[in-house]
Amino acid sequence: MAETTYLEAIRQALAEEMDRDPAVVLIGEDIGVYGGAFKVSEGLLARFGWERVIETPISESAIVGAAVGMSYAGLRPVAEMQFIDFIACCFNQITNFVAKSHYRWGAPVPMVLRGPCGGGVHGGPFHSANPEMYFVHTPGLKVVCPATPYDAKGLLKSAIRDNNPVLFFEHKFLYRRIKENLPESDFTVPIGKAVVRREGRDLTIVSYAAMLHTSLEAAAELEKEGIDAEVIDLRTLLPLDRDAILDSVRKTNKLLVVHEDTRTGGIAGEIAAVVTESAFEDLDGPIRRVTSLDTPVPYAPQLEEYFLPNSAKVVAAARELAQY
Amino acid sequence: MASTLTREQHLELYYYMRLNRELEEQMVRLFRQNKIVGGLYSSFGQEAISVGTAYALGPGDWIAPMIRNIGALLVRGFKPRDILTQHMARYTSPTLGKDGTSHFGDLKSRHVVSPISMLGDLIPVMTGIAMAGRYLGQKIVTMTWIGDGGTSTGVFHEGLNLAAVQKAPLVLIVENNQWAYSTPVERQVPLKDLADRAKAYGIESAIVDGNDAVAVERTAREAVAHARAGNGPVLIEAKTMRMRGHAQHDAAEYVPKEMLEAWKKRDPLDRYEKFLNENKLWDAKTKKEIDARITREIQADVEFAENSPFPPPELAGQGVYCDGCHTVEADWKRPKEEVMPPRSSVKPEWPLKQFGGNGARSSPANKVSPKSKPGKKPARLAARAKAGR
Question: Into which CATH architecture does domain B7-317 fall?
Fold first, then answer.
């Protein structure tokens, strides 16, 4: 198959699942005639019609609520947030209705809520957020953050087929910047499994989404200095693949977590807790983290660059950690 | 008052309304004995609404009751023991003790969606089920309830607007019981009739005396037929009165005594009994039999609930995710090919019916004179804007 962008991979997953299963429907704002703000669903209205590509008013709570209702009736809706920042508007539906449904009364909610997240494109405070941790803190949800076209496609297919609600965070910086040759055949990527993207001996860098690429860039730089970093791509934040992290730390004895989310309450804190609880004896140095600042995402390129992690910041942190 | 129901149906309405009231009265006694674990909400005085509206639905239809809709749960086939064990947090309850009150449901057979405590969220959820039902060719109607206070939430409006643009077969019952916890309705909504909410969404609405079971049932039946025929959602405002506090802990001293006295005379059960008497639909013996049956059923179920175990503590850690314990299956009532390519394919263009305008009306008949009523409005708004500066 031809080289496929991260965005095209997502579109392919939607189209192939809709072709496979008539219970799969899309719901969201401007997703039909216009094809979505980022054109993720372009062409899908023409192929699947108005009943399956459902355009809604600007009503995020109603979008999620309607998707829940469709799930209860046996459909597998995929709801879109035009920008993931707007997920705040339907926080109640997600955390109280969706997440608690199966636990409270045994009603599964097989829906996917997907949308573009992340910075680096000068979107400013309301079009750049990484709100994943609000939902990682919510039992009952699954939270997926793919970093590659292959994973975006395979994980989205898994998410659609899952009987649980899956929040699918697409990093918009990656939409058209990365390409990959994808298999022709139907494939899925399991939710809840991390993957080692680069093997190394000296320290472990755990990351996900756009920061995976930053971490790999940093690892290549570190190699020139004789530091052999192992890079793990979490792919799913909830459920967290603790074993993959622990296995790597037991091998390298050092851990650096890199995420674009802000620092306080980011997944790095949870990972640090998991590692100190289960592999404290294996650590040869402090657990370090490279994250965004504890601020909103600023607009001006100079400010945003200062706010975001980059490979130089990762290299500096890794260099320091390697000295232990 | 004309009604299309048979004698048996009329007696069934009485059975459910009386069961609703007696069950709640029994739960008040259990509450005073500290056997109800959490809060206890009463629908005393509102039984005609829950029972009458739910009674208008067919077996394939869906409901999502709120806390004062135990009557609707009973009509859908839940038993007093389900409601008792829920309130008493027993392992035998529909949620195994994981949630209380009327927070339970049944997706597969009774088509009941469990509510959450946040008001308004059920409206888009039931809209989604209505849309899915249409998609699957099921010809179903969905129904949910909300109080006067709940109509102030944002999601009420989002949900109703989505239902309206989708022409979803949803019937929304607004139970205007005059009080949102301790706040009177006039401080919640500056409208005389909450049914006017419907105007903003261009949907049908009706106002009904919520303490008149026959009128409630008939109005709901018409609304259900309207929605089922594909004419879009209907909002019914049922005017009533919350005769008890917000919940058992609340003595409701903020409610004027005279207001309660006035509404006491309109008690829905007294009125319905009078209706049955006047229309000779029953006699004293029949009433005695039904009442005795209700007492028997409640007693048996209280006994069942009291003898039921509490859940094993470790259950707390189980069931957050569906790990294959449930199947997700849609009940298709139309050929799937209709929604699959190539039959599903469309031209991706908006089928616009009009191109909009600037609001001016070209017809001379519609010309607005400066003295006419509509003309005053802009003037007043302008004055207000000026004052604002």
Answer: 3-Layer(aba) Sandwich (3.40)
Is there a contact between A136 and A267 (Cβ–Cβ < 8 Å)? yes
Q: Which domains are present in chain A? A: 3-181 (3.40.50.970), 195-322 (3.40.50.920)
| Alpha carbons A279 and A270: distance in angstroms, whole number | 14
Residue closest to A206 by CA, chosen among A311, A278, A290 = A290
Interface test with B, best of A56, A59, A100, A158 (most B CBs within 10 A): A59
CA distance B336 to A23: 9
Contacts of B82 by beta carbon, 8 Å cutoff, 6+ apart:
B73, B93, B94, B104
Q: How far is B69 from chain A (nearest CA, A)?
A: 18
From B204's Cα to the closest Cα of chain A, the distance in A is: 20
Give the nearest partner residue to B330 out of A23, A33, A68, using CB atoms.
Answer: A23
pLDDT for B331 equals 97
Residue pair B174/B194 in contact (Cβ under 8 Å)? The answer is: yes
DSSP of B129-195:
HHHHHHHTT----EEEEEETGGGGSHHHHHHHHHHHHHT--EEEEEEE-SEETTEEGGGT-S-S-GG
What distances in angstroms separate CA A125 from CA A256, A296, A319, B303, B324, one per listed residue? 27, 6, 32, 59, 40
List of chain A residues whose C-beta atoms are within 8 Å of the C-beta of residue B321 = 102, 140, 142, 164
Helix (H) or strand (E) holding A90: none
* Per-residue model confidence as pLDDT tens digits over A245-278: 999 999 999 999 999 999 999 999 999 999 999 9
Tokens of B370: 């400066």
Active-site positions of A read 127
Collapsed DSSP state (helix, strand, coil) of residue B234: strand
A-chain residues within 8 Å CB-CB of B133? 73
The residue among B158, B160, B161, B325 with the most chain A CBs within 10 A of its CB, best to mutate, is: B158
Pair B328, A162: CB distance under 8 Å: no
Low-confidence ranges of chain A (pLDDT < 50): none
CA distance A26 to chain B (A): 12
What is the ipTM for the molecules in this complex? 0.97
* Structural domain boundaries in chain B: 7-317
Question: Which is it for strands B183-184 and B179-180: parallel, antiparallel or unpaired?
Answer: antiparallel
> In this predicted model, what pLDDT tens digit does every residue of B87-126 receive, in sequence order?
999 999 999 999 999 999 999 999 999 999 999 999 999 9
Structure-block tokens of residue B8: 């048996």
| CA gap A85, A101 in Å, rounded | 24
* Coil, strand or helix at A2: coil
A100: chain B residues, CB-CB within 8 Å: 116
